[in-house]
Amino acid sequence: MDTMEHVFSYKSINKKFLPILKVKGIWFKKFKNVYAWIAKGGEKVISITDKFIETVNTAESGNFILENQTSDREKYIVKPDVFHTRYEVIKVFGDGKLDCMAKGEIIGIQLSKDLLQQSGLEVRFMFKAPWDEIQYASEGDFIVCNKDFEDIYRVSQRMFHETYEKKNKK
Question: Which of 80, 94, 112, 150 has its CA at a distance of 20 to 30 angstroms from the CA of residue 22?
Answer without folding.
Answer: 80
